[in-house]
Design goal:
The protein has 134 residues and is mostly helical. It has two domains: 54 residues; 47 residues, no CATH class. It has seven helices and no strands. Helix 1 runs antiparallel to helix 2, helix 1 packs parallel to helix 3 and helix 3 packs antiparallel against helix 4. The longest helix has 16 residues. The radius of gyration is 22 Å and the shape is elongated. Pfam families: TPR_19, TPR_2. This is Tetratricopeptide repeat protein. Keywords: Repeat, TPR repeat. InterPro entries: TPR-like_helical_dom_sf, TPR_2, TPR_rpt.
């Protein structure tokens, strides 16, 4: 005769995959790490956010800033360029990309992006970097 005793329910599996709420928490924590001068920690947190949400331009911009702060100029450049593909009128991304080019010794590319940043948003810092009159 088959055993008809009910089997107890299995305990719930621990959730191994991050939730959207976890990604928001990671993004906010990455902002704080960057402000606390831990850009590599910020990049680590943002990697999972971007893997789950590759279209998230804000996360990419924050990761670009973290790469720049960690002196990882090539990854910073690639992220800033990706942001600008999606948002060509993002003055800050132009300015930050210009700074990245400047640190890499590519002064002509830097000048172009400084000027674009200043044209899009005539902030004093952007105007001074572009060498425009303020």
């Amino acid at each position: 005769m088959p055993d008809t005793t009910p089997t107890p329910p299995s305990p719930p599996e621990p959730s191994g995959s991050p939730t959207p709420e976890t990604h928001v928490i990671d993004y906010r924590a990455a902002e704080q790490l960057l402000a606390a001068r831990d850009p590599r920690g910020a990049v680590r947190l943002l990697d999972s956010v971007i893997a789950a949400h590759p279209e998230n331009t804000a996360a990419r911009l924050l990761r670009a800033r973290a790469f720049f702060a960690a002196a990882q100029l090539r990854p910073a450049q690639l992220e800033f360029e990706l942001v600008l593909e999606r948002e060509p009128d993002n003055a800050f991304a132009h300015f930050a990309l210009a700074r990245t080019h400047e640190r890499s010794g590519r002064h002509e590319q830097a000048r172009r992006h400084f000027r674009l940043a200043a044209a899009l948003d005539p902030q004093p810092e952007y105007l001074a970097a572009a060498r425009f009159e303020g």
